[in-house]
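Saturday, quiet lab. Running sequence design on the structure tokens for the scaffold JK sent over.
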């Protein structure tokens, strides 16, 4: 990705320092993504960087937009809706990447049309009904708890196939693939087995699903995104690496 240089709106004072910091951080992240792609023979454009903007202000989102980022992830519906409403002058795609309660779906749509954290048939049905009522199509990924951590959301790997079959039968939902949150590990390499498991699960599921249902893998965050790229991630959810002060 070629980073855009049109940061004139952010020149001067503290804002300029922040813009240059974010630009430098993005450059480092993008270079590492590109290097990981090269190591395994992938094209750089096969990976989408989703900038996670939890606790990030609007000026920083605008800075990333000026640098060419169009995909932004939020963990909470209220923050996603607020940012979407305040940034209507920009062309952005907001990804819902956190736990989604059924009673928040009405607020979420139409501000986001891609949900990474689908984990139940009940939520899928609510999303489908709401999407139909506002005449939208919503892309969804099934969240899989590949590590089996009790404190994490997501379906178990053995339960993913049944949920996928339910999702593809619902109107207004387009199943795109799987998402996982890797456990916190001491070394990025220790995350690899979890990413391999998600990729293999997607390969297994694709045999019995419509073409295109398992094209995306949302996996990899600041601590382990290079390993995730090497194992097939198509969407990286990266926050602190983009906004860190050093």
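Result came back. Writing it out in full:
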């Amino acid at each position: 990705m070629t980073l855009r240089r049109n940061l004139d709106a952010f020149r001067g004072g503290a804002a300029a320092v922040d813009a240059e910091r974010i630009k430098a951080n993005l450059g480092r992240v993008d270079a590492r993504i590109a290097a990981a792609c090269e190591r395994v023979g992938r094209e750089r454009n096969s990976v989408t960087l989703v900038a996670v903007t939890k606790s990030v202000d609007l000026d920083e989102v605008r800075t990333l937009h000026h640098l060419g980022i169009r995909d932004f992830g939020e963990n909470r519906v209220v923050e996603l809706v607020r940012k979407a409403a305040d940034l209507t002058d920009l062309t952005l795609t907001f990804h819902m990447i956190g736990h989604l309660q059924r009673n928040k779906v009405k607020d979420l749509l139409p501000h986001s049309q891609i949900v990474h954290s689908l984990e139940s048939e009940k939520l899928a049905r609510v999303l489908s009904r709401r999407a139909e009522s506002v005449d939208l199509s919503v892309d969804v990924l099934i969240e899989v708890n590949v590590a089996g951590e009790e404190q994490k959301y997501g379906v178990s790997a053995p339960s993913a196939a049944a949920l996928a079959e339910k999702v593809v039968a619902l109107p207004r939902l387009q199943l795109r693939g799987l998402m996982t949150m890797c456990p916190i590990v001491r070394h990025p390499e220790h995350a690899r087995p979890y990413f391999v498991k998600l990729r293999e699960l997607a390969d297994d599921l694709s045999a019995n699903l419509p073409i295109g249902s398992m094209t995306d893998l949302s996996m990899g965050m600041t601590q382990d995104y290079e390993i995730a790229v090497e194992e097939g991630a198509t969407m990286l959810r990266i926050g602190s690496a983009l906004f860190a002060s050093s």
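Notes for JK: Residues 165 and 208 are 9 Å apart (CA to CA). Residues 11-243 form a domain with the TIM Barrel fold (CATH 3.20.20.10). Ask whether to fix the surface positions before the next round.
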